[in-house]
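Quick start: read one record
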Amino acid sequence: MLYIFIIHPIYQEPSIAVLPLENLTGNTDNEYLLSGMHHALIGELGRISKLRVISHESTRYYKSTKMQNTDIAVELNVRYILSGSVLSVGDSIHLILELSNARSSNQLMDSYEYHDQLAHIISMQKAVAQKVARSLRTRPSRAERLQKEQKRVINPDVYKAYLRGMYALHQGSEQWYKKGIAYMEAAIELDPGDPYAYAGLALGYATLGHGQVDSEASFARAVNAANKAIKLDPSLTEAYTALALLHLYHDWNWQLSNEAFKRALAANPNNAIAHAHYAWYHILFEDMDAAIKHAKLATYLEPLSPAYHAWLGLLYCHYANYEKAEKAARKALTLNNTSEQGNLILGWCNLHKKQFRQANTCYDRLPETPHWETMKAYCYVQSGQKEKALEIWYRFTQLEENQELNPCYMGLLAACLGFNDRAFEYLNTAIESRIFPGAYLNYFPHTKNIRKDPRYALLMQKMQLNYIPE
C-alpha cells in the first residue's frame, strides 16, 4: 500500500531519501554497522538547510524491499533516492552509492565509490554529503561547508561500540534503550575523548521514558555527557537534542531547553526528533503557530511515523481544530492500526461531536494503565457515565495503598470528577517533584473545571508558565 502525503509549501526545495545500505559483506553480524552508516549519512545530508532529508526512522522500513525507487519516492514524497551497498567491512570499508532522480524514470544522476580505512569513516560520510549536494546543485552555507571540511580520525573499536549503541537506541523500547546506554558507556571507557559516544549516551538517557531519567544522578550524568560532547564537537545535533529533551521534560528549565532546541536545529535543520519535541515546548506557552509548524515539519521529515502524525493530531485537538485532528489520527492509524494516541484523538473528536457511543468504542481500545485509564475517565464523565469514572477512581485509590501512582494522573482524574481539593493536593505534589506530564496541565481537558480556581494560577506560577484564566 502506498501512503501519499501532501507536502507543505515550505518543503518545495530538493528532497531526498537515503535507503538502507545493502549488506554484501557476507556477514550478517555487520548489520549494526550498516544501520549506523545509514543513519550517519542521513545525518550528514540533514545538515544542508536547503535539502529536505527523510529520517532514518522512515527509510529503514525499505530494507530488503522489492519496491521500485519510483514507488518509494511517491510514498515518501521525495524527488531523489540515494541507494548503495557495502562490499567489505573490517579495518577498511568499501562503499558504493548511486543517486537517482526517482521522479524522472529513476534516471541515474551520479555514482560514488569509496574505499578507505574505517578510522576515516566520518570523513568519508562528510565527503558523500558534499558530493550529493554538488550533484543536486544545492549549495551548503559557509557554516555547513566548514563543518564538512573538519576531518577526524576515529578509533574503529570505539566507533563500532557507538554504532552498536545507536542501533539499540533506534529499536524503540526501554530494554533496548538500556542496551544502547551500556554500549555508549563501553565506547567512552575505550576513549574518554570521543564526542559521539557522549552524545549517544546523553540521547539515550533523554529518550529513556520520554525524557524521564531514573534519578537526579542519572539526569546530572546525561547533562554532563551532552555538555562534554558539545565541548568536544560543537556541531553534534544529537547532544543539543538530548539537552533540549532533558531540560524540557526533566528539570523544566524553559530557557535552556529553548536554546538547546535552536542549537540542535541550527546544526541539523532536518532533525525530526527536535522538531517533534520543540512543538511541545511551544504548547507550554500557547504559541499555536510555532507548535503546529514544528509538529508538521516532524511529519514531513518522518512521514512513516504514526507517533508524529498522532502528536500533530493531539495539538489540533488542543486548539479545537477537530477536522484536522481526525485526519491526523486516521493517518496515524493507517500506519499503525493499534496506535493508542490515534484512538485517543478519535475519541476526543467524537466527544466534541457528542457521538458518545463511538467515543467509548475508541477509548475501550486503550490499555488499562494509569495514563490511559485517566483518559477513559474523562470520556465517561463527558458522556454521562460518571459511575464508570468513579470505578476507576476507587480502584486507583485502593492501588495507592500498596504502590506509588503518578500524582499528576491522579490529580487529572480527581479534577475531571470534581474532587477539586484532592486534585490540587496531587497536582501540587507532581509539580513540586517535576513529575511528567505536570507541566502540561493546560493541555489536558480534565483541568477545565479548575482553571478559574486561584490555586490553579499558583500552580502555573510555580512552573514559571504564564496563565490567563479562561
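The two ends are 45 Å apart (CA to CA).
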